[in-house]
Amino acid sequence: MAIVLDGKKLSEKSEKDFVKRVSVIKKKTGSSPILATILVGDNPASATYVNMKGNACRRIGMESLKIELPETTSTEELINQINVLNDNKDVHGILLQHPVPSQIDERKCFDTIKIEKDVDGVTSLGFGKMSMQERVFGSCTPYGIMRLLDEYKIELEGKSAVVVGRSPILGKPMAMMLLNRNCTVTICHSKTQNLKSKIGDADIIVGAVGIPKFIKGDWIKNEAVVIDAGYHPEKCGDIELESIINRCEAYTPVPGGVGPMTINTLILQTIESCEQSLK
User: Fold this and answer.
1) pLDDT tens-digit map of 98-143
2) Which of 37, 159, 238, 263 could share a disulfide with 207, CB 3.0–4.6 Å?
3) Which of 53, 117, 172, 213 is catalytic?
4) Is 120 noted as a catalytic residue in this protein?
5) Which residue among the candidates 97, 118, 159, 228 is catalytic per the annotation?
6) Rounded Cα gap, residues 220 and 216, in angstroms
7) Which of 7, 20, 1 has the alpha carbon at shortest distance from 253?
């Protein structure tokens, strides 16, 4: 019987610990950690994600500061807003909701966020430090996946891992995190040749390519660990899960696997940022 890597269950368990940690902070300081979210424009999906993050803060007694900027915002205006939050000692984490409107230099804005407040793990400096195994906040989705693998005691050392996807906040940091845990890692993408054979050799597969059911179930060998980091309107992920759930070692369901861990990890890192600021 395959192990179901239940992100919803782990996130609910984690929140009980978060409530206690926030309570300790409040007793020490009289205030709670604050996560600032910046939403540029009126993308409905982005607005939904920001609201979900605010709800998660409220559930554990944290505060959220929601900044909404118009669609016409320039790179300079967004950087100025980020710097206001950088300088605000009451703000412990800053999240710039992706994507931003096309006229904005998103990477420049991400890299404006102070590394000690980069609780979403999006800065170039943070990625570099993580790759070099220095202590830093990790990109939330891949770090959430690592927490899920650890919770279910999935063995990583020496395993062959294939990450399908190369985005700067998911595929690339996912590969580095697995490499840091002594996996042998191959990074693939939608243009990779002989992708089926590469996936077929993998002990661990991470689907992070952003295409519904792009990875076919019959490409995946028996007893593999299958991590699906995708979610699409069709209520499916990047992997054809139906045919492998009875023959793999472990898998993440869609929904309820990776998704809940992303916001949960964002909240965790905001609490950690606050705790570090009190030392």
Assistant:
1) 999 999 999 999 999 999 999 999 999 999 999 999 999 999 999 9
2) 238
3) 53
4) yes
5) 97
6) 7
7) 7
